[in-house]
Amino acid sequence: MADPPLAGTDISSHLAYAGEAKTQCGVYVHWPFCLSKCPYCDFNSHVRRAPIDEQRFVRAFAAEIASTAARVPGRTVSTIFFGGGTPSLMQPAAVSAILDSIARHWSVAPDAEVTLEANPTSVEAARFRGYRLAGVNRVSLGVQALDDRVLAELGRLHSAREAIEAMRIAQNAFERTSFDLIYARPQQTPKDWEKELRRALAEAGEHLSLYQLTVEPETPFAALHAAGKLKTPDDDAARALYDTTQDVCAAYGLPAYEISNHAQPGAECRHNLVYWRAHEYAGIGPGAHGRLDIDGDRHATATEKSPEAWLTRVESAGHGRITDDVLTREEMADEFLLMGLRLAEGIDPARYAALAGRPLDAARIATLQENGFVEMTCAGRLRVSMPGFPVLDAVVADLAA
Ligand SMILES: C[S@@+](CC[C@H](N)C(=O)[O-])C[C@H]1O[C@@H](n2cnc3c(N)ncnc32)[C@H](O)[C@@H]1O
Ligand code: SF4
Predict the structure, then answer these.
(1) I need a labelling partner for 367 at 20 to 30 A (CA). Which of 20, 66, 135, 359 fits?
(2) Which residue, by CA, sits nearest to atom 7 of ligand 2?
(3) Spatial separation of the C-alpha atoms in residues 94 and 131, rounded to whole Å
């Protein structure tokens, strides 16, 4: 069972980021609307028949930014991420207004990374220059596949050709780009995947996110899967696809720095590193999560998920927050382990010990090491090894037990 928060004990020293240059602070902004709902997706994304009152949402985002900044004043924001949903459905003026609100309430680092997730349709690509002028300097495109038949099965509204065109437009408009592909799809063989991945890498810039298809509960894909109409690769096939991914990306100079993310060294997504390194971030918008350090405690926050309910809540209360839990030391330590071991760089065991109030179990580490699932680096960091990544959940559960 988790420890209760230690009454009257300031644990801010345990939140200190031992071994890392400096505490980073990120802001996540959630735009919850899409043109259509993809059958595999369980993100907080909604399709609306009526036009969205963007101005009203922008005012609500501004109010929630102001109320969050009042709780955690004086931060220097190093990363901002517009996620969704489909943020590339927003007008550039809306993105610009939200960025202005963030800059009004916190200071934004001169070299801040500002990412926007975009779907690669031509309509959205036409807005890229506007986003750049608004202050976005990195775009993450949801390409998903480079095969029109597969894109149709995934319920996507774009073709492979349109996706490649959008990538090129993005590469001209932004200093930094990334794109997402989903693999381990029904009937996909390592040979097919290698061909598709090589084609993707030929177009890629500095960063790629490569996700294994997850059949999420209560999605149309889950219903098809349960009816035996959607067959995902078994463990061995998924493992072969994973190995192909690692080999091909490494050969192209984009090794994995996280279980699903590949980048040229130095081109990692700094915003996602904020999560994985357990730094501080504010979650703004419907269903957004945050981790805020207030008076020496770490708060786990979450807002109302339904876009309309969030809007009315913000309009009446000034924020859409419905969860604000102070994490116990045990919870912080577990989260640190869970997030940090996704990274190729691994974790600093001393930071774990400072958070948990006890070190990791040396005997468990030794057994996992003997089995080849984890390794200690010369700098004393604990990291998951290549054979350990496909069984990451089990490794984390073992270490956290
Ligand atoms: C917030 S979503 C999508 C952003 C954008 N709306 C899009 O569709 O391109 C971020 C990424 O999660 C991945 N994703 C979503 N659902 C998934 C699933 N069930 N399995 C694997 N990857 C998934 C997709 O690659 C997607 O681009
Ligand atoms: S994958 Fe992207 S476009 Fe599709 S429903 Fe999810 S958030 Fe919307």
Answers:
(1) 20
(2) 85
(3) 10
